[in-house]
Automatic annotation (TrEMBL):
Organism: Cellulomonas gilvus (strain ATCC 13127 / NRRL B-14078) (Cellvibrio gilvus)
Protein name per Swiss-Prot or TrEMBL: HTH-type transcriptional regulator LysG
Cross-referenced PANTHER family: HTH-TYPE TRANSCRIPTIONAL REGULATOR ARGP, TRANSCRIPTIONAL REGULATOR
Keywords: Activator, DNA-binding, Repressor, Transcription, Transcription regulation
Pfam families referenced in this protein's UniProt entry, alphabetically: HTH_1 (PF00126), LysR_substrate (PF03466)
PROSITE patterns linked: HTH_LYSR (PS50931)
The HTH lysR-type domain, residue ranges: 1-59
Family: Belongs to the LysR transcriptional regulatory family.
Length: 294
């Protein structure tokens, strides 16, 4: 089945921008023109591709074609560069899923000096769920905890992010005066990034050998998370980079010195051999190397 390039661009723009008006502004056409292209593409495949909501989202067949559209855009960009193009076709957008701790530490270094005609659209998601965005075609690449390559993707190990169990001295003295016991872990309040963040439970299970069920605060901000650990709202897991300042000034203590949780991370991207994706992969590997544990 052959697909019209302008129709694929319209589909990608609608899903990226979330509205037909936003897609029209991005493509420098009218909303009516965008609507006509989407309808023509839907008629071509005989399926509904876009759920007309706010924001617009892809149906299952729409996600398949959105992935194709993004792949075509990358290939067009690299073909134009190889042929000495002047870049007038516009920038190529790469959607990348990254976990919050990587995004707040080592990952930004990978984007320094990115070519002017490459735009990144970073999607923050837990490392245990970023692979789902690859599977549904939402992103081109992802930092993920999944070592198994998503269908149609390549996977490269990045190293492990090390997490330590932290608390304020006052919270430690109140809840863990007799040590980090099973009973204390069941009663002491914990802080998690969100409901997908299982690090606290995994760490506690590793320490005492079985699952615990502490009361949990949810704080979906890296900065606020560490500040509330310092303030004694609860105990929680933070990366070495996030923990360093608090451990140095004494506002945080390591609940179980010498015990930590290493989370292996992997870089997965579409199995396209193109200069754009190869360059991004090289940048990500180089940025991860000084920070993550081998």
């Amino acid at each position: 089945m052959n697909f019209d390039a302008e129709q694929l661009r319209a589909l990608a723009a609608v899903l990226d921008e979330g509205t037909f008006d936003g897609a029209a502004a991005r493509l420098h056409v009218t909303p009516s023109a965008v609507s006509q292209r989407i309808k023509a593409l839907e008629q071509r495949v005989g399926r509904v591709l876009v759920v007309r909501a706010r924001p617009c989202r892809a149906t299952e067949p729409g996600a398949v074609l959105a992935r194709l559209a993004a792949q075509v855009a990358v290939l067009e960009r690299d073909a134009g560069a190889a042929l000495g193009g002047d870049g007038t076709a516009g920038p190529t957008r790469l959607a990348v899923a990254v976990n919050a701790d990587s995004l707040s530490s080592w990952f930004p270094a990978a984007l320094v000096g990115l070519p002017d005609d490459v735009l990144v659209d970073l999607r923050r998601e837990d490392q245990d769920r970023t692979a789902e965005l690859l599977r549904d075609g939402t992103v081109t690449a992802a930092v993920t905890a999944d070592a198994h390559a998503v269908q149609g993707c390549r996977v490269r190990p990045l190293g492990a992010m090390r997490y330590v169990g932290l608390a304020s001295p006052a919270l430690r003295d109140r809840w863990f005066a007799d040590g980090v016991t099973s009973d204390a872990l069941d009663r002491a309040p914990a802080i998690a990034f969100n409901r997908a963040d299982a690090l606290q439970h995994r760490y506690a299970e590793r320490l005492v050998g079985h699952q615990v069920a502490p009361p949990v605060h949810y704080v979906p901000s890296n900065t606020a998370f560490v500040e509330l650990l310092r303030a004694g709202l609860g105990w929680g897991m933070a990366s070495e980079a996030a923990a360093a300042a608090g451990l140095a000034d004494g506002s945080l203590v390591d609940l179980a010195p010498g015990r930590h949780l290493d989370v292996p991370l992997y870089w997965q991207h579409w199995a396209l051999r193109t200069p754009t994706l190869d360059d991004l992969t090289s940048r990500v590997l180089a940025a991860a190397r000084p920070t993550l544990h081998v």
